[in-house]
Amino acid sequence: MKVLVLNCGSSSLKYKLYDDGAEQRAGLVERIPDGGHEQALQGVLDELSDQTIDAVGHRVVHGGARFADAARIDDAVRADIEACIALAPLHNPANLAGIDAAMARLPDVPHVAVFDTAFHARLPRRARSYGIDPTLADKHHIRRYGFHGPSHAFVAQRAAEQLGRPLEELRLITCHLGNGASVCAVECGRSVETSMGMTPLEGLVMGTRSGDIDAGALIALLKSGAMTVDELDHTLNKQSGLKGLSGISNDVRDIEKAAAEGDERARLAIAVFTHRLRKYIGAYAAVMGGVDAVIMTGGIGQNSATMRRRALQRFEYLGLLIDEEKNAGAQARHDRTPVVDISEDHSRVRSLVIATDEERMIADETRRVAGGGAEVQSEMPIPIAVSARHIHLTREAMDALFGPGSELTSYRPLSQPGQFACHERLNIVGPRGRIDGVRILGPLRPACQVEISRTDEFHLGVDAPVRHSGDVKGTAPIILEGPKGTLHLQEGLICAWRHIHMHPDDAARYGVKDRDEVMVEIRGGDRDLIFADVVVRVSPKYALEMHIDTDEANAAELPPKSEGSLVGVEGRQAVLLKRKAWPQPAGE
Ligand code: AMP
Question: Residue 304 C-alpha to ligand 1 middle, in angstroms?
């Protein structure tokens, strides 16, 4: 399949042609005048006239809250991209001009929009909200969207391959440091924090953008009459960052040279840039409760050993140690050395320099969406079970809480084969409140796990991460009180990720596999509700059943014996659920 990737800026057009993943042609048209995209594209297509193009992938900067994935472009999708112009007045109009010109010239092939924001579209609420009244925020669409999605997603995947571990198990910090720059915390393959916000102006110091600045400073500048709104916009977006700080250039090569020759402002620019970056890396390690690898990419991340060195120094306390020699020589290039590990051999946290390739990611996404075909294959209903708060214990915990050698006794069997609810109960104690008489589920397990709902969390005064059952590493501490003793668990408290248990036969029927994330529409309640982010767990030991917690059941006003139907598989919903936006995640 031949995919043409188009990246239309306000005055430029970049293109790359891929043949089943192999880059065949690339080019750049610059200095396109207003209204000249059609002519520029004409030139590109004339140059490619010896090629049969099967699909076109368009980079679109802002997908707002509407797009959590790439989408095949039709009239409705086009209108939605147009509606996001207010959020990206410089970028989306140029992206649309490219889409219109390309669709006019190639009307018979699928066109796919790949959004910079989509990878971050389901940031947890705590990360996407600013500290203002949510009513005001909603009215004006003020929230954090995040950008550089294809780049963060691409290097995260590459890092997982390099580390030889599934992305779903990793905590990564990806630093895209180009002329625009952002950091992303990628936990279990999803963006949970990122430094750019409602616009690409927030966060790191960039080539010409200021990054974080006290909003009060802007109010002061405007009130004093020192600048008009347009001048302030221009100053913060075009005359700040490395360029503004150094007074020399937005290019790190020029600044590093001047700094080496003693230029004070050049030194200040480097110091502020790397200090800010280091601050974010430390913060994101804290957000994820640890980190497995830090990835450096983009023109600066891939090339500047000094910027990497300054940003990654003094992280020994995190278990991150840079090998000076490896770092000094490292330059990542797609065509030669796409991934370089610059860590000391015994460093627990790896530091990787990875060549990003946003166009390739856009081509892959285009192929996936245009290829379509991934219809959910069965309409078999899924029984829904509401799981109340409960506890799993280890042998040792059982001894400590109920006395040595004590055994669990079955109160009733559960629908999953071999599982049972017990007569035994425990009290859960948090810093703010307690919940007495919480049931234990048997049999005993290799790790203790306490599963509560969001409501329980606020009652207890704790912060429980959303996790898959069994995945308790680095989760929250909690106190358990039993008849014979009290146990201070260092970890094990979670809000369980909603999930569907499936036998392999069921999975085959639906056309899904273990750990796929799916969307389930719930019938039977007063409200039609779609749950996104439902994780499929496949095992020969499982019977078909979806588990949601009590909060979720209340939200859906679910009657007993409700059923759901699988309406989409993440990454394929553009095909399956054309008109429905993905709901926001359950997590705070
Ligand atoms: P990008 O937007 O990813 O293409 O990054 C462009 C920026 O990368 C330039 O403005 C430079 O600041 C930086 N850069 C590119 N090559 C080098 C290099 N060899 N050493 C240091 N910085 C570089």
Answer: 8
